[in-house]
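A quick aside before the break. I want you to see a complete sequence-to-structure record at least once, exactly as it would be stored in a machine-readable document. Don't worry about memorizing anything.
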Amino acid sequence: MLRILHIDASARPGLAGTDEHGSHSRRLTRRFVDRWLSARTQDAVTYRDIGQKPPSFINHDWIAASFTPVERRLPWMKQALAESDQLVDELIAADVLVIGAPLYNFGMPAALKAWVDQVVRPGRTVDVNESRPTDPYVPRLADRPRHAVILAARGGVGFGPGGPMAHMNHLEPNLITALEFIGITRFHRIAIEGQEIGGEVLARSIDEGLQHVDRLVDELQAVLQTRPQRQPA
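That is the input. The structure line, written in tokens, reads:
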């Protein structure tokens, strides 16, 4: 059995093509998960709709607790990290991380940034080796292969790699940097563009995006079905 962590970060609750003002990124993630489960009904999906229920922002108590050794944490520190612990546990368990996110003002939605801040944790997802001052960070999620699928939606066009607006896209690059930092290194990117333009430009991008999702599901399932099985804990 494989485990998928499905995260939707769009502020739009509905699906484009079905609901008025629906989300294109949610449409992509729904397509991905539905196609995945149609072929692998035994796999498990954990769903987080952070667009509608955002994670908490980190604060002073979170920082103080996170940087205090486990054996010295007071009860209030454990409580301050309870939400983060749950989000981290979900991420560690996942074989495939599926994130649906729109490009908001050239970057990721605040809810997604809040999730990133909750899961990049010393002692949980990254260690610090003080004996290596110039390169002290040791990613803890490099223990086994994990795939991250980033399914984005952009109002404009040309924001993808090599595009004329790529230098203004800080969504996928930022997210990839954060996930690589904790040890996730296998990335897959698909995006729908042109919502602000509409018409044929948007329609073509939607069709291509959905087709790319279908192909990616087939490719990932083929890869993951042939990998060595996890050893029992």
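Two observations worth writing down. The chain has a mean pLDDT of 95. The longest helix spans residues 199-225. We'll return to this after the break.
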